[in-house]
Amino acid sequence: MSKSSLSFLRKQESSSEVVSVEAKSVVNIISDNMKVARASHTTIPLVPKLPLGNAVSNDLTPDPSPKERGAKPVNSGVHFPLPISGRGLGGEVKSLNIGLFGFGCVGQGLYDVLNHSQGLKAEIGKICVKDKTKPRSIAREHFTFSRHEVLDSGEHNLVVELTSDADAALEIITSSLLSGRNVVTAGKKVLAENFELLYSLQQQTGASLLYEAACAGSIPIIRTLEEYYDNELLSSVRGILNGSSNYILSKMELDKLTYHDALKQAQLAGFAEADPALDVNGTDAKYKLCLLAAHAFGVIIKPEYIYSSGIQNITPFDINYAAQNNCRIKLVAGIAKDNGGYRAYVLPRFISRDRPLSNINYEFNGIEVEGVYSDKQLFVGKGAGSHPTGSAVLSDISAITYDYKYGYKKLAKRNLSPCRRGSQLQNGENILHTDFSIQTVSSHVPVESLKEDSAVNISNSFAESLSGDSAKTVSPDFSRDHRFLESDFNIRLYIRYRDSHDGHDSGNARDFLDRLDLQSIEEEYTSRKGNYIIANVGFSSLQSLAAIPDGVFVCEV
Predict the structure, then answer these.
(1) In the prediction, which pLDDT does 91 show?
(2) Which residues are paired to 474 by β-bridges?
(3) Which residues of 456-485 are buried (b: 16+ CB within 10 A; e: fewer)?
(4) What is the pTM of this model?
(5) Across 49-63, 255-269, 453-467, which has the greatest mean pLDDT?
(6) For the chain, is the Cβ count within 10 Å smaller at the N or the C terminus?
(7) How big, in percent rounded to 5, are the helix, strand and coil portions of the chain?
(8) Strand pairing category for 307-308 and 375-382
(9) What are the Cα distances from residue 528, in Å, to 317, 341, 497, 499, 525?
(10) With contact defined as beta carbons under 8 Å apart, do 506 and 500 qualify?
(11) What are phi and psi of 489, to 5 degrees?
């Protein structure tokens, strides 16, 4: 290919991917750390298991040091000490009895890391699961098959929800919060689809709901946004949020595997589910993007309003095209301020190999946070796997022992009196939300309406206590935050498709192209190996299409 026909790729990357630190040094650090991680694969040297829970006793022998275990020291990078509310000098630490829901990949990971942590006053009291026939790695006496045995028990002062059922998770979380019990969850779907309700319940009850493990695995991004960036004016948050899809892309490029072979390896390694649809089609990353939007910008956007497209139609042709242009393909989810609104979507993207984000491979995640004053910072860590995700759950459990709660500071700023669009705060930040529906009520989702829902087990007396004068607040209407999503802009896309000689779905591909608002075509290529165009496309036309047909792969350039 000619230099002129490919120059736009490099121009796009150089204008949008500038990092505030020396790029090559960051790339080298990330690459070196990943080589160490891949060399050891996913095996974590652990001391023998303790009894169920983490009994703290003077009899226990401390964990051997890494040197005594024969492990090589690894430079883990920079640590950011984050403030934890309720934690003071000499302050008393809670002892926790955990009611655990779910014992799959993450539940087992939590069990392992909790049993090998020292000094944390927490133990698992009971584990509630659905499948009575599934073999378990620990004694059957620790399990129950009735959620009421956990929810109605006075023994458990913390509920940890790690199920794969979003409907069941909503019942577990709401019931626990309404009883004044703190909750830790890794359920990104239940959070993204019910964020306003769960936020309101926390404000009403004073109970804490923590969910660091729901976004980017082991990366402490939620608490970082809450504490480190609480008063920073952010421009964008974007990154690789799904470890399963990133693992597949790395295997296709570095090991020359087909998509289906790479997917099988991801499933065998425990990074992808038996049904990987949510991981590979961008839905999982979209759920996580909803959480980042709330904590980074103070907007609550339901998943159905965010456009997403995944990697399920990718082929070696696309991987090779990226490599020929010194790029890698990554599934990127992002939200950015734009002309008084936000651009938020999930799409595969060509990223130049000299940019740090392109060098995040396999099950690792990477999140780039850009601030008006702090510029760009990159956070990297394992985004999939039993122990990395379990460690994030453990971090939340530890925070609960010190009565930590999310401050939701950027959401709280919207509890100000309404003002007109374009007016500014003293620090110069535009107030984007203008025609708020200001209500004096107990919540956007009245507790009385919850009492009518049989799926949520609520104490009538507790609900009535919330509806008193003490619970009345003045709040904006978050339910219409999707109005601030921009769609009237152009996006540069690589679109690879099948033509007439390629088979039965060529008609669907042509129909897809015909329905796009193609502002201009910069490059077009046709051959028996593959066909593609690179074009500037009206984003709203892409967003309006129900789905991308088989045989078509769309990637941002």
Answers:
(1) 52
(2) 440
(3) bbbeeeebeebbeeeeeeebbbbeebeebb
(4) 0.80
(5) 255-269
(6) N
(7) 40, 20, 40
(8) unpaired
(9) 11, 43, 11, 9, 10
(10) yes
(11) -155, 165
H/E/C letters for each residue in 111-151? HHHHHCCCCCCEEEEEEECCCCCCCCCCCHHHEECCHHHHH
Tens of pLDDT along 487-541? 999 999 999 998 655 455 567 898 999 999 999 999 999 999 899 999 999 999 9
CB–CB of 307/542 below 8 Å? yes
- Alpha-carbon distance of 543 to 483, in angstroms, equals 15
Q: Which ranges of 73-126 would DSSP assign to H, the alpha helix?
A: 105-115
Cα–Cα distance measured from residue 137 to residue 124, given in angstroms and rounded to the nearest whole number? 15
Contact 366, 378 (CB under 8 A): yes
CA-to-CA distance for 232 and 398, rounded, in angstroms? 26
pLDDT value at position 92? 65
Contact 419, 438 (CB under 8 A): no
State the burial class of residue 260 (Cβ atoms within 10 Å of its Cβ: 0-12, 13-18, 19+).
Answer: exposed
At residue 477, the pLDDT reads 82
Closest CA to 20 of 424, 515, 369: 369
Q: Which amino acid is at 87?
A: R
How confident is the model over 201-225, as pLDDT tens digits? 999 999 999 999 999 999 999 999 9
In angstroms, what CA-CA distances link 496 with 181, 513, 524, 547? 51, 10, 10, 15
Based on the number of CB atoms within 10 Å of its own CB, is 494 exposed (0-12), middle (13-18) or buried (19 or more)? buried
Q: Please compute, for residue 481, the number of CA atoms within 13 A of its CA located in the half-sphere on the CB side.
A: 23
Q: What value does the mean pLDDT take over residues 404-426?
A: 66
Alpha-carbon distance of 320 to 343, in angstroms, equals 29
Q: Are 366 and 357 in contact (CB under 8 A)?
A: yes
Calculate Rg over the CA atoms of the chain: 24
**Chain-centre distance of CA 143, in angstroms?**
29
Which residue do the tokens 């499948």 mark?
131
Compute the distance between CA of residue 441 and CA of residue 438 in angstroms, rounded to an integer: 9
Nearest to 55 by CA among 134, 114, 136, 138: 114
Q: Which residues are catalytic?
A: 288
Do residues 274 and 267 touch, judged by C-beta distance below 8 A? yes
Paired tokens of 118: 């020292």
Say whether pLDDT at 14 is over 80. Answer: no
Beta bridge partners of 127: 100, 143
Angle at CA 48, nearest 5°, toward 47 and 50?
110
- CB neighbours of 423 closer than 8 A, spacing ≥ 6? 430, 431
Using pLDDT thresholds of 50, 70 and 90, give the confidence band for residue 340.
confident
